[in-house]
Every structure is written in structure tokens, then in C-alpha cells.
């Protein structure tokens, strides 16, 4: 469906041939709902929410479209975390009619197809259900699919390990928020570099400490002149 050799992001060196092409990427944030957050046990909810926030900010910085959805926001699963649409105001919300699998919803699939993008980056709660089912169906439909595991959550570590195995078996590529950030970032020689740098400080707080130490050392050097 999508020929990697035609990627505009591939450099003469061949760099980028195996990486995500931002111009072909679509981010799908699935069922990040307050009720479901309370069941997550394989990652701290604070880390999970922060990683989703990073992805939302990244999408805004790089003009990557975002689609969100929730199966039953009026029920026990609860509403979507508001930070997604606050940080990615261009995100499009698609309500479902109770379908557990977002790919069972005609409106959702139509919105995905309407973007014309074929590289789907998915995250959600639960990983083993809300991400797994549409990810496998999207692969079957010919899409290139990535699952951001630390922007997703499951009721147990065993569930997340099983999910990882099934992703790999089904051709879905597992990744992390930090790897996604770096893969889409690609180079510091870009106008958004400073803002992208701030995202690294969120996804890896120790990196923020490195940046702070460097900035202070630079200031001390200037003061010593």
C-alpha cells in the first residue's frame, strides 16, 4: 500500500528508509479515559499521562494529524483526558456507538482513510484491547502500524507482555514515546528544535537536568570572562 522507497523523508545517504515518514504519519489516541486509567498497573498513570501529553505536543509542533476516540465516555470508562485536545487543538474526536474495537466503527475508519496517511501511530488504554484490536485490523487493511507502549496501559504486566508478543506476531511495530519523539525529530537543524528539546525534558526528566546543568555551566563561563 505504501512504498518506503518513495518516502520524501529518505536522505541521499539512505537515512530514514526504515523510519517513520512524518508527512505520512497519523496519530490515533484511543480510549485514554479516566475510568480506565484507574485499572492500569503496568505503568504509573502519571508517566502514562505525561507521555500522552508529549505525543500531543509533538503532533502540534510537527503538524501531524490526530484522531481521538472513546467507546463509552458516558459510562464507567469515563471521559477522555482533557490534555490531549488542549495540547493538540487540531485533534479530531470520533465518538463510537459502544464498539470496543475502534476499527468496528465506520466513522472512525472513514476519518482515518480521509487523511490519506498510511502510517498509523497508536496508543491507548487498554493496550491489549483498545490498541491491539484496531492495530491488528489496520495491519490487515494494509497500513503500517506502530504501537507506543509507554503511552498505553494494561491491567497487569503479564497483559502488556502478551500484548507485545501479539503485536510482533501481527506485524505491528512496538515503540516508546522517547523513540517516537526522536524518530520524528530526526535533526536539530530545524526551526522547532528548541521546543522539541523541551519535550525530551518531559519524556526523560534526567535529560532536563543535563540541559539545566549545561545552561548553568555556559552562564558561568560567560560571567568569568
Automatic annotation (TrEMBL):
It holds the Pfam family Isochorismatase. Residues 26-178 form the Isochorismatase-like domain. SUPFAM superfamilies: Isochorismatase-like hydrolases. InterPro entries: Hydrolase_YcaC-like (IPR053152), Isochorismatase-like_dom (IPR000868), Isochorismatase-like_sf (IPR036380). It comes from the Bacteria. Signal peptide: none annotated. This is Isochorismatase family protein.
Amino acid at each position: 500500500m505504501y512504498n518506503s522507497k518513495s518516502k520524501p523523508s529518505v536522505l541521499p545517504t539512505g537515512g530514514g528508509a526504515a523510519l517513520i515518514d512524518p508527512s505520512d504519519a497519523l496519530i490515533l489516541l484511543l480510549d485514554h479515559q479516566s475510568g480506565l486509567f484507574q485499572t492500569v498497573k503496568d505503568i504509573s498513570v502519571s508517566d502514562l499521562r505525561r507521555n500522552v501529553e508529549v505525543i500531543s505536543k509533538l503532533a502540534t509542533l510537527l503538524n501531524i494529524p490526530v484522531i481521538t476516540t472513546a467507546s463509552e465516555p458516558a459510562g464507567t470508562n469515563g471521559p477522555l483526558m482533557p490534555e490531549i485536545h488542549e495540547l493538540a487543538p487540531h485533534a479530531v474526536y470520533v465518538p463510537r456507538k459502544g464498539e470496543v474495537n475502534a476499527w468496528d466503527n465506520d466513522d472512525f475508519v472513514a476519518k482515518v482513510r480521509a487523511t490519506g496517511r498510511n502510517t498509523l501511530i497508536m496508543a491507548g488504554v487498554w493496550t491489549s484491547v483498545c490498541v491491539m484490536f484496531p492495530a491488528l485490523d489496520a495491519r490487515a487493511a494494509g497500513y503500517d502500524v506502530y504501537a507506543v507502549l509507554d503511552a498505553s496501559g494494561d491491567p497487569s504486566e503479564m497483559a502488556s507482555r502478551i500484548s507485545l508478543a501479539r503485536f510482533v506476531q501481527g506485524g505491528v511495530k512496538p515503540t516508546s514515546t522517547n523513540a517516537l519523539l526522536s524518530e520524528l525529530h530526526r535533526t536539530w537543524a530545524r526551526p522547532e528544535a528548541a521546543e522539541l528539546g523541551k519535550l525530551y525534558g518531559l519524556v526523560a526528566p534526567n535529560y532536563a537536568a543535563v540541559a539545566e546543568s549545561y545552561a548553568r555551566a555556559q552562564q558561568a563561563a560567560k560571567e568569568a570572562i
